[in-house]
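Reopening: structure tokens for the nicotinamide-adenine-dinucleotide complex, inputs below.
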Amino acid sequence: MYENKISIIGTGYVGLVAGVCLADFGNNIINVDIDEEKIKKLQNKKMPLYERGLKEIFDKNIEEKRISFTTKIEKAIGDSQVIFIAVGTPSNGDGSADLNAVKKVAKTIGNIINEYKVIVNKSTVPVGTAKKVKNIIQDQLEKREKNISFDVVSNPEFLREGKAIYDFTHPDRIVIGSNSKKAKKIMQNVYRALYLNNVPFVFTSPQTAELIKYASNAFLATKISFINEMSILCDKVDGNVQTIAKTMGMDGRIGDKFLHAGPGYGGSCFPKDTKAIVKTAGDYGLNLRVIQAGIEANKKQKMYMVEKIENYYETLEGKKLGILGLSFKPETDDMRESASLTILPELIKKGVKIMAYDPEAIKVAKCYFKNFDKDIIYCDNEYEVMKNADGLVLLTEWNQFRRLDLNKVKELLKQPIFFDFRNVYKKDEIKEYGLNYIGVGIGNS
Ligand code: NAD
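Re-run output (same inputs, fresh job):
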């Protein structure tokens, strides 16, 4: 067991998963947040968010007293040798990452520390942020007339929501950006369980570590946009994007991951991180054309889904559509930048009434769609959305939507049309049930 405590400031999707998993590795964790309601829930052993498998490890580590939750940031910092910053870094209007929360935490750290600490940037932050955090802490120490040594490490996180527990406990690599031998050793100790398991560790400078995260996310987002654009071409020429993606993926140089055509990428990372790296490059007079093109293709893809629906009907006015899935991907209730946030309001604008179901995201969706109260009815299960509907639209590929009773689907729908925007089903199979089928880039024949 690691004797020194670790504070994790910011208990969201990343901070909570990191806290629970690092506790499971044997560390002593204090999770901090400014959101009192969230911390109260956690203290009462309730989950403030949904992530598959999180609750089980959470319960185990609470039981074994390796993790606690507080809003008292000063005490947590004072008690810890390692302080992770895992607060949100959303987009500013100009695409840059909003670093206000990170800076605020850095200032508090500078006001509190009285002995050597390692401060770890776990949030996704633009290149140069480790230096900024260091300067903020240093400024505060100077104001306090204290001469205390500390190190700032960049340790970006690569987990995927929905698979966060697996990703955190079986990472492809751990990136440690630091120029300090002492800090590297302490970080190795934090991740001792993974180090012993031969997980590759990449030790590099803070600025390279910061860029690794953005380069990785921008590359994956661009890969999705690439195959999405292929899907539009396939629709025009009666090609099949799934076969193309599968065959491309057989080439080891390409790989089959992130090559699934769909309604456009969303979530809390790809949209904001692609914009942020383009903005950073712009600040240095550079134009990252490839990433910019990926961003534009993604916007277009979401609207292309609306077009597909619109083209099927003579008019959308007065139509009722059943929507399966609202979260940006399965196994999470995260709605940030979800395709549904673009597609549903567009459909509503064109006169559509929505019947929607999502296994986990309805509560969150109600907040996002609060201006559409009269246009969206939230249903209790996947079949309720279809009752008397003019069509069914699959937006998020939750497992339970992969095995629909297609006889029942046909029976419940008023008009037999299934828009499968995740290409979950085979067109021929759907047609056998007397349903019309429109996927993404799978041709017309
Ligand atoms: P989130 O919004 O779910 O959580 C952030 C938390 O920080 C919130 O609970 C908020 O209340 C808290 N917070 C804000 N200011 C605070 C402060 N001053 N003190 C204490 N707590 C504060 O965000 P997230 O999805 O966990 O993302 C966190 C960071 O990790 C972001 O930079 C994100 O880009 C990055 N990241 C996210 C993912 C992901 O899949 N969500 C994956 C990798 C990296």
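The mean pLDDT is 97. The longest strand covers residues 80-85. Marking as resolved unless the reporter disagrees.
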